[in-house]
Amino acid sequence: MTSVFGSVSISLAAGFSILSIFLLLLYIRKGDYRLFLSGRRMAIVVSFLVIIATFILVNELISGNFNIDYVAHHTSHETPTIYKFSALWAGQSGSLLFWLFILSIFSLIAIYQNRNRYHKMMPWILVVIQMVQLFFLILTTFITNPFEPTKADFEVINGLGLNPLLQNLTMAIHPPILYLGFVGFTIPFAFAFASLMTNESGSLWIRSIRRWSLVAWLALSCGIILGGWWAYQELGWGGYWAWDPVENASFMPWLTGTALLHSIIIQEKKNMLRLWNMILIMLTFILTIFGTFLTRSGVMSSVHSFTQSPLGPFFLSFVIILLFICAFLIIKNLSNLKSDKRIESLTSRESGFLFNNVIFVTLCFAVFWGTIFPVITEAVQGTKITVGAPFFNQVTIPIGLFLLFLTGVGPLLAWRKTSTQNFKNNFTLPVILSLSSSLVFLLFGLRGYVVISLMLSVFVIASISMEFNRGIKSRVRRFNEPILSAFLTLIKKNRSRYGGYFVHLGIVLMFIGFTGQAFNLKKEIGLSINEQNHLGDINLKLVKLWSEERSNHFSWIAELLVTEDDGNIITSLRPEKRIYFHLDPNPDRRQPHSELDIYSTLKRDIYSVFSSIDTNNNIAFFQIMINPLVRFVWYGGYILVFGTFIALWPSNRRKLLL
């Protein structure tokens, strides 16, 4: 019976959403403030109804109400409670409701924050938010209702359970954080749309969305990093990024969102790039919807995506409608979006930001083309031509290296124009250090893009260090502060700038980690007890093999002794081969899964996967990999998040409330 209330809640939310849009549009036409208040209250009601429906579904998942089809397909009695909760976003209809839940929270925050501000823009902002909510409410009400009853002529006493790949703590938090980023860009898009509808295309809407955009970008960054961590820890192929279509779906709005955050600075400081910023925010939002289309339509084959579903045409139609509306509004407002000021010099910081943005968008287009190319070829020729990692690596590595170079150049340029003397003073030391480091790398036998990547990393670290050093010296000289105090005060006084430098430093460390992939080693081996094999400079010996029966799976566990060539013990690894639903009489229900084990240091990861076991001959088969510098990727991610928090942290309580 409770599930009926959930279904009624989302149906009522759809109705109130339509009513809210009608009242707000009527207010825009008539000007009666009572209509706006009523429309805003209706929007609040919509959000609360969605939140109620979400809590109801969570309750049904945890309590195991298998009379609901979604619950029966994604949980079971054996599923641990935490994964019953994460089942909310594990399936099609639940994930759409969860999307609505996040958007409802954001909607309530936006309404509360701006209850006494932006009186001209707020009606349009609420109309846009309600339109997006209505689209998802229609899907969850009529197309894929999460409260739909189980279609069976018998009582369902147990569910199918959650996919073993999703029974991972990282996967329990990766999707919601990624959704925070995806859904978060709805609010900046609503502000941008409202600014076009009200001819408020100056810096007002930019100031309004800067913090929203940064929060959404941070969430999207964390979601992508956690997704890579999950893939590395759970999928067993030894990597963290495979250019999978759904990975690309999150990467594309991240690229345009990153470009937006850079160009916002130019508009705030110089009132330039107004048209460019409008295009970027609209493109970023549309790419989040397009990414949702890729994930939920089944049009792309991916370990992350759902199966074929009727949602594809609806999402694609929504994307096309958004494109036409946004293009129409931008063309209509071209005269208002033009900036009076122009970039004065190619050697200015403004020029550096613009080059940076162009490269980000170019990279986004390259990823977009590689992602949709199989779909286009299948539609045109009837044969799907797959575009794999080699294509993406060949195209994106040069672009990525150029972006890395611009990351180091930007801080060294001055606003408006960099004089010849400043150019020499700022660039001499970073260039000398990077060229010297390249000679060292060449002497160690490194070649190709590996040398270029490491050399540019040195260049960026040197340029960022010079900026910190210059600021600290200035404070020590002017205020006679201790070095540590000067460092902390420097960051506190300009959190946006120096937080950004920390973000850049994090990205550099990630590039170093990416470069380590050039030295990966991999080997498949079969071992019996006390037998050993080797890979690179390590030896692996199978010292023990046993089985355990646990609450929701059966597991074979191997103990591998890892030693150096001289016999020194490095570590012991314990990968597992699990069988979920092993007691089910139907063999098709039994789900095998490899639970890998990793020994990680700053220098390298030793990565072990228990592939299979020959129980007749008592031989276990493993995939062993040596992956250098992977920790730099995760450390870089930590620093990126730390830097973003610095940039976000308000200078006083009043700003926090804003």
Question: Can you offer a commentary on this structure?
Answer:
Strand 2 and strand 3 (538-549) form a beta hairpin. 43% of the residues are buried. The radius of gyration is 27 Å and the shape is flat. It has helices spanning 2-30, 33-63, 69-74, 81-86, 92-113, 122-143, 169-184, 186-197, 204-235, 245-270, 274-297, 311-332, 334-337, 349-381, 389-409, 420-443, 449-479, 483-493, 495-515, 630-648, 653-657; strands at residues 521-527, 532-535, 538-549, 553-564, 569-573, 576-580, 591-595, 597-600, 604-614, 619-628. Strands 2, 3, 4, 5, 6 and 7 form a six-stranded antiparallel β-sheet that branches. A four-stranded antiparallel β-sheet has the order 1-10-9-8, with no helix packed on it. 63% of the residues lie in helices and 11% in strands. Helix 5 (92-113) packs antiparallel against helix 6, helix 7 runs antiparallel to helix 9 and helix 16 (420-443) crosses helix 17. It folds into three domains: 2-341 and 348-369, no CATH class; 396-518 and 646-657, no CATH class; 519-632, Tick-borne Encephalitis virus Glycoprotein, domain 1 (Sandwich). Mean pLDDT is 89; it is low at 303-307 and 653-658. It is α+β, with helices and mostly antiparallel strands and 658 residues long.
